[in-house]
Amino acid sequence: TDWVYAVALTPDEKKVISASWDCSIKIWDLVGRKFEYVFNEAHTGYVYSIAILSDGKTMMSGSSDKSIKFWDLEERKCTEILNYAHKQAVRVMIVGPDDKLLFTGSDDKTIKIWGIKKKQLLHTFEAAHDKTIDALVVTSDVKILFSGSWDRSIKVWDPNNYKAIRTFEKAHDGPINDLALTSDDRYMLSVSGDHTIKMWDLHLKACVYTFEKAHTHNIRKIIII
Fold it and tell me: Residue 1 has what pLDDT?
């Protein structure tokens, strides 16, 4: 009944899960093309982010209530709550390809790395950006993490040694809302409130093409198939 802020596809590509500002998380059956289930009052605030493990059985969600929740999609219940996971809203979350690490970004300008198995905080990049962090993406070997922020910059991190590597200042003329990597980790796409889509060559460490006026309004999400 309110804005849908995040969607995720299950690994078997049979279901889509959506998260909303109405505090709910919904499951949709793509095969039958119908609504399947709703977690009403999944959080006490807007649900901004969701991520699903590769087994399709476990989901995580992040909210303006500052918590991270773990969900059993088969039993359809919450199994763990990390209260005050961030000091402000949990805007974005992604899972590493090996399902070992969860990366979260927040309005509190920090990036956090969590161990999924023990549900424990491993590291915090304090003051990672000057404004809200709304985009994260990690390479397939989990050696490089990228973050995008409303401060218009893209930053590059070493998530294993907990080090900052590089900053692309003024990567866009507006807030950066999402990032996506090609399957070979060679190129990255970024989208922004400035209505553009940019393509970055990660070998050259530079923007190589800009789709000007890609849309007439704020571009929220991008996906590479």
Answer: 79
Return the exposure string of 134-153: e unless at least 16 CB atoms fall within 10 Å of the residue's CB, then b. bbbbbbeeeebbbbbbbbbb
What's the one-letter identity of residue 3? W
Asked if 173 contacts 152 with a C-beta cutoff of 8 angstroms, the reply is yes
* Spatial distance between the Cα atoms of 25 and 4, rounded to a whole number of angstroms: 9
Work out the angle at residue 95's Cα, subtended by the Cα atoms of residues 30 and 153, and round it to the nearest 5 degrees: 110
Query: What averages of pLDDT result for each successive group of 10 residues across the chain (225 residues)?
Result: 92 96 97 97 97 97 98 97 98 97 98 97 98 98 98 98 97 98 98 98 97 94 90
Give Cβ neighbours of residue 205 (< 8 Å, ≥ 6 apart): 166
- Identify each DSSP E strand in the chain by its residue range: 4-9, 15-20, 25-29, 34-39, 47-52, 58-63, 68-72, 77-82, 90-95, 101-106, 111-115, 120-125, 133-138, 145-149, 154-158, 163-168, 176-181, 187-192, 197-201, 206-211
Question: Do 117 and 100 touch, CB atoms closer than 8 A?
Answer: yes
C-alpha distances out from residue 106 to 56, 118, 198, 206, Å: 25, 21, 23, 26
